[in-house]
Specification:
The chain is α+β, with helices and mostly antiparallel strands.
Length: about 375
Amino acid sequence: MAKRDYYEVLGASRGASAEELKKAYRQKAKELHPDRNADNPQAEAQFKEVNEAYDVLKDPEKKAAYDRYGHAAFEGGMGGGGGQRGGFSGNGDFASAFSDVFEDLFGDFMGGGRGAGARSRAQRGSDLRYNLRVTLEEAFKGVQKTINVPASVACDGCHGTGAEGGAEPVTCPTCSGMGKVRAQQGFFTVERTCPTCNGTGQMVKNPCKICGGAGRVEKDRALSVNIPAGVETGTRIRLAGEGEAGLRGGPTGDLYIFIEVRDHPIFQRDGLHLFFRVPVPMTTAAMGGEVEVPTIDGGRSRVKVPPGSQTGKQMRLRGKGMPALRGGGVGDLLIELVVETPVNLTARQKELLREFEKLSEENNPEANSFFSKVKSFWDGMKN
């Protein structure tokens, strides 16, 4: 029976790129995998055919020969057509093909693939998180803080290699440095992490007595951190290379500092703006006057209270709020008046207020308007 065209087998055009061929191969391999087609006796043969086609077309030299001469380019066992190298004449060949497709399909996701052991010899250190609380005044000005971070650091005894005296690790004899071993189980080749080196691909003959071969030890470090002006709760600061040391000389992780700004007894914050409520005497609210208010920079400002001010009236001091992080403007300070009613009145004060009440019947427009509406409501209910 004549062999089918390899491009037809993969469902790809002759002008397909390497990436398009790989995509077509993956789709066909998943579709025809024997494990997914237990009720299809032809699935295994079709699966082999797909692997044979891709084995040729993924290789630039084989692909060029096939594009020019077709299947005749591999007659005599030179490639993927009829010889032991490219064909699938027995269970061993099928198992090898399955191992290759499994590696191609899932190696990128599982961290596998050829050479994975070499990549895992030195492992990057973990990133660390540190929660730092600052005052609102510190967030306004910016501040330099010294923090103590418990973390793993490179072992001084072995300089991070894990071996006594700083000697270099040796290649694992079990996996030959790959970090993985393969075992044949019927049709399948099962790949497992090497039990001797635990996937690192290397071994330490004489482990360092200080770190036990890990290449790092636990130690507290004092770090100086610059907190820029304008930070707010949730701001994240990254210190590259200040995390945990890597295993066996691997790169160091990063330290992430998360800022929390404490509540302030006077000011409330809303983004760049600050807000607080200031009580004013009833007389000041009625006749007008001035109140002295604080600002976040430690200064003082005098604010004019217009005559007839009511509770809830807001005034704005521009540019007296919080600075934007890394520049970009400054917010405002919003002041809300709270008209305060006097308490614990003396007899004389009560007498004066009663006299004032008789003289101020026309000085309460909001109250007059409200009670006029109430009277109309009651009259309407009677009718």
